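JOB MANIFEST
job_type = single_chain_structure
chain_count = 1
residues = 172
[input]
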Amino acid sequence: SAAKVAALTADKEQLLVRNGAHKTVIDDLEFNVGRCEDSLNATRATLAETTAESAAKVKALAADKEECLVKNGAHKTVIEDLESNIGRCEKSLNTTRATLAETTEESAAKVKELAAAKEECLVKNGAHKTVIDDLESNVERCEKSLNTTRATLAETTEESTAKVNELSAARE
């Protein structure tokens, strides 16, 4: 019976050591999951609220599940779940980073296109301003010439009328 007690004590000690090692692995994995989720949240700012809510739900469910699994001695399942979560988070993070890079490139191309269109518009506006200035100058010149011609016409008409009157008087 003493041998049985010693064997059971040894088994108990071994199980306590194993449980401690599993707890350390679980703690390390939980820490890594938190770090991965923090990185994902920083990258996907637009999804921060949804990710935080989901992380809280996952953490609560994981804690409930962990408690149940620990009570039943199912540490391996907890470890596999946490490793799966890390893989899922890393995959999601990589997808988000790729999407961010793609949209950044598209935005840069669009900005470049719009800047070129703006520059072209500014050049056209500058050319139009030059044409308008030239036309305004031509209008002023034409108006001066027209006014000079009118004055000359009035003077010539006056002289012609005087000559016609003089010739008419001389004929009579």
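[summary]
The chain has three helices and no strands.
The mean pLDDT is 83.
exit_status = 0
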